[in-house]
Amino acid sequence: MRTLFSFWVFSLVAGLFLQACTSPIKPVPTPTSSVVFVLSTAARVPTQIPTATPHSTATPTLIASPTMLATATETITVTPTPGPIWGTPASLMLHRKNDQFDTVQFLREFIGLLQKSGARVLTYRTLAGQPVVGTSRPFIISIDDIYLRYPIDPSVLEMIGLLREAGYPAVLGVVTEGDYPYPETVATLMALQDLGWEIASHSDLHHNLASMEKVAPKSIFPEIRTSLDKLESALGRRPITLILPEGQMTRGVMQLTRTGVLWVVGISGGNQYDTRQAFRYVGREGPDGDARTTFEIMLKRFGPK
User: Which structural domain, as residue segments, surrounds residue 130?
Assistant: First the structure.
């Protein structure tokens, strides 16, 4: 019995030993998160030198993209941004001919000086869009005291003819008193307006506004508004310019602002104007002796600052 038990124990131990010797060894898995790769010194050194272009001290050639080429060949013109203060063009004030002064002959000689100097003649309405920039000196010529209810004075018509022949537009200051505009005057003004001339208000009653406001401080606005309304009704375009009767400026700035005019034209001062203001006050020069003397005075007064 003891012998049989010993044999069984021996057989069991031998079987276990034989199984251990013949079965493959299974490695213990190591979590991937704990694996640390250590690069040896040999692995850090490349086994082959990269085939890059050898370094050169010469200036590299830049191959531009299409965008770069367009930028490189494009000519850029820098336009300066206009400032708020601009010089008033040299401005001439004229009236009809009388016994003391031959305005027609004066204008004929003055036009010759303008042509010789290569001046550019424009209107306030033209100037409203953009201040004049260029080599040609700008001039403005205005003729006052044209009455909407009467025929245009023959000497004024003659001056209009001289200016048209020279190709120069002008500004016509129109007084609008009365209820019935003269048909031929309306037709002439409309034709000139279509040619680029400017029709400006010269008030309704042609009263000195500075004197008017002393008597009736609130009378300035209706006086100018009435004139603007009549001109718009007769000519189909509302004026943006007021030529002050007798060149006298008023203290009623708020009343002038309410009228909506852009230009207020007097005589003294106004050699520069500020585009930030609700309206722009500018001055003018009347004939002073002969045409050449007046021309030189205007160049000095309205010259570049």
Answer: 85-301
